Amino acid sequence: MKRLRVDRWTGQLVTATRPGAAGVSSSAPRFRCVAASARRCQSTAAAAAVSESVAAAADLVDNNPRFPPLENLPPQVTSWPSPPPERALQSAKLAALHARLALSKKIPLQTLARTLVDASADPNPRFNNTNLAFVGQTLINYHVSEQLMIQYPRLPMEIFYAAMKGMAGPAPLFQIAKSWGIESAAVPGGEVDPGLLQFSLDATGDAILGFGYSRAEQKYIDKYKFRRSVASRVVFDDDFGDAITKTEFASNETEDDDHIHTNTSYGSATTRALAEKAHANHVRAVVGAIYTHCGREAVKAFVKAHVLSRKLDLHKLFVFSDPTRELSTLCAREDFEKPIARLLSETGRLSRTPVFVVGIFSGKDKLGEGSAASLDHARRKAAMNALKSWYLYSPGENVRVPSDMLNEETRPWEPAYIDIGEVIARGGNLRR
Amino acid sequence: MTVKALKAVSVGRNGVGAFILQCKRIDLHYCDWAGSSKGMNGFIKSLLPKFAAAHPQIEFTVSPRPSKHPVAIGHYINGKEKAICVRNMEPYEILKKVELLRDANGEKLKRLHKNVTSINESVRGVWSPYHGNGMQV
């Protein structure tokens, strides 16, 4: 029986071929149904005239010794949606990016160039970053989720989803791409520098990223704002607990162009969302490329260095609707004594700015403490602090995660702490 | 459902995890004719190849700017740029200036009053007047 070579499983992504195009290597001429002429012309006569004048101008420019051409481009390059892979070797920006990210020499510049081509710029999956981004997305989400689950085993699911989105969602990945110094081309095309991120603001591109199901009743959820239960979000929705819609930016087509192309320096909300998506897909594709060429350990180190090292304050994510009730439910569940709020210290009760410090005790153990300008507020804050210290229990910073065990010479796995789940307080939303 | 979540985005700290050099591009402009570019031309011929090879993460562009003083412009990841006029300088003086561009982070120069700034929580906590036994005066 042949041994499975897990490290080769993504090898086909580097030179992906479509079923109809067998035997065409990625450096071969590209067959696509676009006009042969570089310019778009209204009639063929105009096209011929334009091509003649262009050729004459090109001759003049090429023969001028004072202004030699910067780069010899293939003749039909402007008709291609993205730069040909062989141009990657001449791009200074791309080489600088490769060195800036301290990527291994095993990752060729052509692959790095491919990670910069979004599906909206080039719909052909052999030349855009969709496949690499899919691999990268699964890897980033896996490493972030295992770290969160082991490091904070008691996180409620809602907070877990928010933390996943805050660490590995499109917004943080956009920030990561910005921190790498990724610049984007104004308009994608075959003649632009391969070191620029290429995405289109007109076409949206259909990149399938991540697992999940689009729900049959999605239309009614949108219309009537049905609540999606946490359990159903785990089963149906994506890694961030968001519903999967078939076309995320489908509504753009009905909007007028002026709305999309706002002439402000920041663009419109739609253009910003498209830019965020393209930058995030680039980061995912880089991770996918690292996995494809360098393997598991390299990608883990890269995700740890670039994604997991960022700071996210989990205790700022919590919103409690009824903390005192939830705390007493928790104490009942865990067989603690009933929580009792006691005033620890106060000042200026009759003044304009009183301060009350309230502690919540279960028997002799102090569960939490809060200070506020009113007694009730202080008690609620104390309860929130008590709940947060319960939910944010952590076995330590340097916990071992399951993927550590994939290394062959490592010590045996010690079972990680697994919590029975979050507190479900009955009638929690009565007061809203 | 009693606990709800707010949205937040993680904050990156360069050097914690990965370090990204903030200078991403240095433009060097020279003039073939003018005397103020003499040092710059020497720098480009003798020192630049070694410097550029030692810093692959920076993109170097060399371009003529006839009848103007030579200038070195650094472009940074935060979108800002820093230009230094290097007229009449010797090649090694220009090397110092280019190293300055390399080491800068592109932000405006500002006076730092604290030796250490951090977004981490204080390990010791914040002092509170409502805890402890107080102080006898």
TrEMBL record, chain A:
Transmembrane residue ranges: none
Subcellular location: Mitochondrion
Boundaries of every DRBM domain copy: 322-392
Keyword hit for Signal: no
InterPro entries in the cross-refs: dsRBD_dom, Ribosomal_mL44_DSRM_fung, Ribosomal_mL44_DSRM_metazoa, RNase_III_dom, RNase_III_sf
Sample GO molecular function, one term: structural constituent of ribosome
SMART domains the UniProt entry points to: DSRM, RIBOc
Domain spans labelled RNase III: 94-182
This protein's GO CC annotations: mitochondrion
Coiled coil: none
Assigned keywords, A-Z: Mitochondrion, Ribonucleoprotein, Ribosomal protein, RNA-binding
GO biological process: one example: RNA processing
Pfam family, one: DSRM_MRPL44
Superkingdom to which the source organism belongs: Eukaryota
Protein family membership: Belongs to the ribonuclease III family. Mitochondrion-specific ribosomal protein mL44 subfamily.
Protein's name in the database: Large ribosomal subunit protein mL44
Organism in which the protein naturally occurs: Cladorrhinum samala
Automatic annotation (TrEMBL), chain B:
Domain Ribosomal protein/NADH dehydrogenase residues, every copy: 32-105
Keyword Ribosomal protein: yes
Keywords from the named record: Mitochondrion, Ribonucleoprotein, Ribosomal protein
SUPFAM superfamilies linked: Thioredoxin-like
Origin: domain of life: Eukaryota
Cellular component GO terms, alphabetical: mitochondrial large ribosomal subunit
Subcellular location: Mitochondrion
Keyword Manganese attached: no
Protein's GO biological process: mitochondrial translation
Main location: mitochondrion
GO MF annotation, one: structural constituent of ribosome
Family per similarity comment: Belongs to the mitochondrion-specific ribosomal protein mL43 family.
PANTHER family (alphabetical): 39S RIBOSOMAL PROTEIN L43, LARGE RIBOSOMAL SUBUNIT PROTEIN ML43
Name assigned to this protein: Large ribosomal subunit protein mL43
